[in-house]
Design goal:
alpha/beta; eight-stranded mixed sheet; four-stranded parallel sheet; 8 helices
């Protein structure tokens, strides 16, 4: 029988009502008492490194989770993490970059209602997660939620209250779980390389959401204080004329900055070559594109890049003095 480490971190699944609203209070042993049939699938050891509403989860908490997995990796067959839904997609993406080539499953789950309620999705989600983590063909980082298995870098919370809260963006769900049976849509090939752990993340990342008529006033402040800037643009990606000159000048002054073009559109991703507003600025600046990555995955990967790579790994050399069409 498989031995699974249960890492409880809080969230709605572990919450109880207070006069100020739901607050994580339920211990992992109590959570497990609501799914007694889990003993048919695996043996469980429980640990609780923190007990937070996921709104309060930070990269330091991701590091704590990774350290636990690293320390216990060869003593367990898999890992199940109970987590709040609000930042679950960020955590899933971050763990995907922080724990690579994992032949053991690292499953993240949670719920839209606390596990101690009579009507709740928590018990099904938690039991499904242990079933999936105990299966022989499971590996890597995934979210298990509402009967779907979603790759950690593809998950996005798309509903704030409904049980089907998460979608897999521009990529099929890896599997579904129905009546305690796993039906896989995508077969997983065994990892050829050994597992690798990355414990550092640099959260000096700013997400700049463009608005119609946006002004350049804050750009210098952002460039001065952040190592990576993710531009969440319209459509397939571009920089509006209202901030174009200032944006280019700051790119020229700060060539070491990691600049990433993303999109506010949920599906089908960016392609800056389509329109002049994107194609021109891409030629002029060292801008990476997120393409069809989720914003959560882009943010997590930017943090991973800053902590574990150098800018030379990602930038092509540009002579800024030769490319700005309005300069002599």
């Amino acid at each position: 029988m498989k031995h699974i480490l249960f890492i409880a971190t809080g969230g709605t699944i572990a919450s109880k009502k207070t006069e100020n609203g739901l607050t994580p209070q339920i211990k992992p042993e109590e959570m497990l008492s609501y799914i007694p049939s889990v003993s048919d699938y695996c043996e469980i050891t429980a640990i609780q490194p923190f007990n937070l509403d996921s709104t309060n989860v930070t990269p330091e908490n991701w590091k704590a989770i990774v350290q636990i997995i690293k320390q216990n990796y060869f003593d367990f067959d898999g890992f199940v993490i109970a987590h709040g839904t609000d930042t679950m997609a960020y955590t899933a993406a971050a763990l995907s970059y922080m724990v690579q080539n994992s032949s053991r499953p690292i499953v993240i789950t949670g719920s839209q209602k606390p596990i101690n309620l009579d009507v709740t999705d928590a018990r099904t989600n938690l039991l499904d997660s242990f079933i999936y983590a105990s299966a022989n063909d499971s590996q890597g980082v995934q979210i298990v939620f509402d009967g779907k298995v979603i790759a950690g870098t593809r998950a996005k919370k798309v509903r704030s209250k409904s049980y089907n809260a998460f979608s897999s963006i521009d990529f099929p769900s890896l599997a579904v779980i129905q009546d305690r049976r796993i039906m896989r849509y995508i077969s997983m090939l065994p990892y050829k390389d050994p597992v690798r752990f990355y414990e550092n993340m640099n959260d000096n990342v700013f997400l700049l959401k463009l608005l119609p008529g946006i002004k350049p006033d804050l750009l210098s402040f952002i460039f001065d204080r952040y190592d990576a800037i993710i531009v969440e643009s319209f459509g397939v990606g571009g920089i509006p004329v209202s901030i174009r000159d200032a944006f280019f000048a700051l790119c020229k002054e700060n060539p070491e900055k990691l600049i990433i073009m993303a999109t506010q559109v949920a599906h089908e991703g960016s392609d800056m070559t389509v329109y002049e507003v994107g194609n021109t600025i891409k030629k002029m600046c060292n801008i990476l594109e997120s393409y069809d990555m989720t914003p959560e995955a882009v943010c997590a990967k930017a943090m991973w890049i800053l902590a574990n790579s150098t800018s030379a790994d990602f930038y092509r050399p540009i002579n800024y003095d030769t490319i700005w069409p309005n300069e002599n």
